[in-house]
Each structure stands twice: as C-alpha cells, then as structure tokens.
Amino acid sequence: MTNNQNQTYIIGAIIFSLIGGILLLIMDFGGWYAYNYYAGVRSWGYIGFYELPSGLIFLIPAIFLFYCTWISLKTLQNTNKTPNKNSLRLGFFLSLTVFLLALIGGIIFILTLEDVSDWWFDGAFYGGLLGGLLTSVFLYFVLKNMN
User: Fold this and answer.
1) Which helix (H) or strand (E) holds 17?
2) Structure confidence at residue 79 (pLDDT)
C-alpha cells in the first residue's frame, strides 16, 4: 500500500474518532416517553453525559476516542518516521471497545424500558457505535499496511 492510502485511513480515523467523542459528550444517548392513559400519567426522560453523576460513564468512551484522534494526528504529523505501532494498536482496541460498549449499552437501554410508549437512540449512541466501529476499521487498515 502507498503512503497516501495510509494517510487517507489516518484522516478517516481522525474524523470519526473526533466526531464520535464529541457526540458522546454533547448529545443524549437515548430517550423515552411513556403515557398511561388510564392513570393520566406522562413521563419522559433521557440519559446522557450531562446527567451527572450517572452520565460520567460516557466520559470514558469519549476519552478513548479522543486518544484515537490524538494518536492519529501524531501519526499523520510524523510522515518521515515510522508510526508507533503499539500506540496505533492500543487505539484500535480502544475504538473497538467503544463500539462494543455502545452496542451493549444500547441493548441494556432497550431491555430496561418497560411500559414505555416510545423510545429512541440519540447522537451519543450513534457517535459511540459508528465512531468506534469506523475508527477501528480505519486503524485496522493502517496496522495491516504496516506489516
């Protein structure tokens, strides 16, 4: 593979890890709306980073993705040096972890909603899921090309 292809993969990792990390911090993970017609009770809610202290759980995956952004930027800047394979490998595993955490978190979110009329996933879920998945895919290709 050419150096230009590796640069393209690195830029993809930068974009998706940065957007995913930001979405984890500024958007809701998911929300719900419930209405009991007979009792006349309506309730709604959401979960996200800014719902402290429980929202701090979103800080860890965001930090993981920001690490991927940082290590990808360092790799892009050092074009005449060999990239640090161990740092890229760690970024790959951290981004894959973010993807799995978002997937498992989404399943838990769905399973814990009982008697809810409507529920939805929001930007933080998609930021973690797609940001983690796409960052890990791009970093995988960079690592594969380094062999």
Assistant:
1) helix 3-26
2) 66
CATH (domain of 55): 1.20.140
Q: What is the mean pLDDT of residues 113-119?
A: 78
- Contacts for 30-33 with beta carbons within 8 Å, 24 or more apart? 30/106, 30/109, 30/119, 30/120, 30/121, 30/122, 30/124, 30/125, 31/119, 31/120, 31/122, 32/113, 32/116, 32/118, 32/119, 32/120, 33/116, 33/117, 33/118, 33/119
Q: Which amino acid is at 101?
A: L
Q: What is the number of domains present in the chain?
A: 1
Q: Count the residues in the chain.
A: 147
Give residue for tokens 């050419």: 2
Q: Say how many CA atoms lie within 13 Å of 102 toward its Cβ.
A: 32
Is the separation of the CB atoms in 28 and 143 below 8 Å?
no
The residue among 13, 141, 145, 143 whose CA lies nearest residue 73 is: 13
Q: What is the mean pLDDT of residues 72-101?
A: 89
Contact call for residues 113 and 139 (beta carbons, < 8 A): no
Distance CA 98, CA 138 (A): 14
CA gap 134, 139 in Å, rounded: 9
